[in-house]
Structures are given as structure tokens and as C-alpha cells.
Amino acid sequence: MSVNLRTVYAFAREMYPKKVNENINYGTAGFRGEAKKLEYVMYRMGLLATLRSRIKNGQVIGVMITASHNPEPDNGVKLVDPMGEMLEPKWEKIATELVNVSDNELESKVASIIKELNIDIGTHCNVYVGMDNRYHSPILLKAVADGVIALKGNVKEFGIITTPMMHYFVVCANTKGSYGIPTEEGYYKKIIGAFESIRGNQLENGNYKNRLMFDGANGVGARKMIQFLKRMNGSLNCEIFNKGEGKINENCGADFVKVQQKVPNGMPEGIEANVRCVSVDGDADRVVYFFTDSNGKFQLLDGDRIATLVANYLMSLVKKCGLKLKMGLVQTAYANGASTDYIVNELKVPVSCVSTGVKHLHHKALEYDIGIYFEANGHGTVVFSDEAKEMIKSISELSQNPEQKNAANNFIDVINLINETVGDAISDMLLVETILHSKGWDVREWFDTYTDLPNKLLKIKVQDRNVIVTADAERICVKPEGLQDEIDKITSNYKRGRSFVRPSGTEDVVRVYAEAATKSDVDQLAYEVSQVVYKMAGGTGAEPTPPETIYNSHI
Ligand code: 16G
Ligand code: MG
Q1: I need a labelling partner for 246 at 20 to 30 A (CA). Which of 91, 202, 422, 515 fits?
Q2: Count of domains in the chain?
């Protein structure tokens, strides 16, 4: 196949000219920004995806168009590597360079990437493209597809899908179907099949009631949940809200609920006490639970809660199977201290802390036979080693002990229910439902496993957020000099006080996290830490305000 690089420039000039001068960066979650400024970025990511696929011997690369939990005018793009991982860091740099050159330099930039990496441009390559349901996504999808076509790649469009569906499709394709079938129906079939096989005909158990309220954030998660329910024959009684009537993520969705700690708009006022409610984000890769308790108080069950519930359940399955498997839980510094204590002291599962961002968590989790990872914001999943899967399978096939055999069969279903390729809000939710059902627990029993420490998240505008440099999985601030000492001094005045600061990877701000034994303590602690950050890291705009007026920010 001959590829004429001149086409690369022709397309750019005619259809996707770069009209902005500011440089942008491939950040923790790809490129994000105002949708109207992104067409040239998308076109160039289409080009890049073909090069990435070619260097990976024609394996499928995914391109997902979404701005996740960001507001409606934003959009974004992220690339999915062959095994469902986030794009390799070395290529994040290449992506950044490719996006920032002028139209005139584009052709030679592509040529130099091909030369430097010794890419055989004449070979076949495959790119999958999908998008969330933002109104500007179709135009951006076409730009990606044109990028792929310009370099003579094969492009397959999946239309509107969730981010985790894209990761699943890529992995299915690259494992020749052994992970599943790379179609929307294949995805539903695998997950629903596993869910219904475990649940059987008994839809309720003990205190577990088959009733759930689902906030779809007006995003693609709502649409796909409707599709799930259509295929589920009543095995889950779930009422869907925020199906797309309002703006995506506006006063609803997992990020809003986690940060604001309140019931999202679009759900009925005065939900009955102890009814399980669940919120996903705009592209359905995050999930949090919440409920209103019998005193009318809002209560949140975030990613830490899901991680602990899952770890507890999987441990019992491992035991029932009579297996010895290395299980580990991966968190970030944002994990509530009470959850970490519970994991270490009650569950006795090794826990590690890594930097924010899915790639760090996923990578660490792969070190275990069963690696459970969750960010407090609700993004997470479980990954199983091939050896662990083999062992479970052989028990299911060979065991003479009915109880053990049963546990292994159950385990296989649980593995099929989980989308191992990336955090998947709907699959995670069905896993939580499965666990609560099997334990016969209502939401209150789950909530009572431990008590969260009151916590607070703030954001501070500074001149240059990169003056903050962190170490030890973002728990220690090494620059500016002296800032950590100040934080330590302040924190030591508070019972169970903990606080850290880090530059955001997705917004031009510094984030401050604080937790302490009481609500008033945490408010004061967060305030004092943000004051020193403002002073020592070059704060701009209004100074931090005392507790009463501090607002909660998002991670
Ligand atoms: C991105 C990350 C998410 C992280 C968040 C932190 C991926 C796919 N997503 O959304 O994991 O929690 O950024 O945002 O890695 P921040 O750096 O602005 O606090
Ligand atoms: Mg998301």
C-alpha cells in the first residue's frame, strides 16, 4: 500500500485548519477543552492512531471522543492502547507535539515520527472510534475518521458508546474474541449473562431489596442503562433519571454528587429513606452511590466504599474456593483515611497508594493475582491475572466438593461481570448490586462497615500551578521549599488531621485535600492549608476565605 503524506496537509488545510495558537497538552485524560476549538486536534489524533496501530503491528487502537464529567460546551479525546490501557506516556509526548505544530509543519512532523520510530507506513492498521452524546461529538468523530483515512487506515465507527465500552471493544478485538465479542450486543450479553446467572430467580435476599434509582448525568450512561434494562427481563428494578432532558453533567452525575455531597437535580425531592441511588458521570466510567438516611441526611458511598465492599466479597470467594491468591487494593491519596484503616485492620488486604490518574492505578493493580483499584471519585475496577483465572477454572471443572465447585462457578460469573479493561460505571454498579444481594444487605449495612472521616476538597488559583512539585504518590510536597513543613505544622494541631496539595492534571488550579476527626476541624484545616498554599505558591485572585464560605471543589 502506498501512502502519500501530502494528503495529510491537504486535509488539514481544506477541512481541519489549526486556527488557535496556544499550545495544549495531552494530559491525564487526553486533550480536553472547548469543543469548537478541537476539530484540528481530532483530525491529528486520527493520524496518530494509525501510526500507533502500525507500530503495534496493526492491533486495534481506540479513539474515544468525550469530555467525561466536564460541562456540556467541552469535549475531548483519548486514545486507548491495545490491551485497553491509556496511551503510553512516551506517546503522550508525541501526541502533544503533533497537535501543536502548524498546518504547514504537519506533513514533515508526521514524516519525522515515522522515520524516528521506524514505522512501516505501508502496513494495515485499525482504529476504532466512538463518542459520547454531546451535540458536537459527531463533527469531531468525523474529523478523527478523516485523519485515519488520510493515512489509509481502516476505521470502524461505533457511534455513541460509553468510554468503558470502547476499552472493552479494543481488548476483545486484540485478543481475537477471547475476552468477548467486540460489538455492543456482545458487551451487553457478557455482562448481563453473568449478572443474571449469579442472581438467578431470587431477586431479593434478606434486607436487599431489588430497587435502585439511577442518575444518568444526561449522558451516554443513561442511554446505555436503558439498553441494559431492555435486555434484562426485570432482573434489576432500576428507575432512570437524567436521561438527556437537561445538559450533560449539569448539577447531576457522579462528579457533582461526590463533590457537592447532595442529591442531583432531576431526581425526585424527598426520596424515601435508605433507597439505593446511584450516579454515573458523562461517559459512564465513574460511579458513586448515595442515599437519604432516616433522619433525612444525605449519605455518600464513593469509590473507597465500593473498593472495600468488593475486596471483602472477593476474599470470601477466594476462601470458599480454597485458593491462595495474592490480592491487593490500590488507592490514591484522596482515599479516605478511614477506608485505608478498614482495609488494613479489618480486611487485612495489602493496600498501596499511587498518583492520581487511571494509568497509575491500573498499572499497579496488575502486580497482583487480584488487583482492585478505585479512586475516591468512583473510577475503578478489578483485574485478574491469567494464572488466577486458570486456577479458578480448574476448580470449577475438577473439584469433587459441590460447595467449592459452586464457589468457583460463581467466581467465574463475577469475573465476567467485571469490565477488567477500565473502570465501568454500569458493570461496577451491577457488581455492587450482586454483592449486596448475596450478603442480603441494605445500603445502611454497607454504609455502617466503617465511618468516613469528614473531608474537604478545595481549589486554589495560582500563577503557575507547576511550582508545586510532589513526591510519594502526591502525599508530600517537595516544592516550593518549606511548604510541606507548614502543612505538617498545621495538620499536627488536628486530631486525625491529614492534608496534601497537588497541581491538577485537568484544570489550571492547585487542589487541596484535607480530612480530620470532625467537620469543623476539617473546614478549619482546609482553610489554613489553602492560606499557606496561596501565600507560598503565588496565589492569584481572591484569597481563601474562612470556613463558612468555602466551597467544595472537585477532583
Ligand atoms: C482524570 C483522570 C482521573 C483523575 C482525574 C483527576 C483518567 C482516565 N482520568 O479525569 O483518573 O481522577 O483526572 O483530575 O486518568 P485532576 O488532576 O484535575 O485532579
Ligand atoms: Mg469519565
Answers
A1: 422
A2: 4
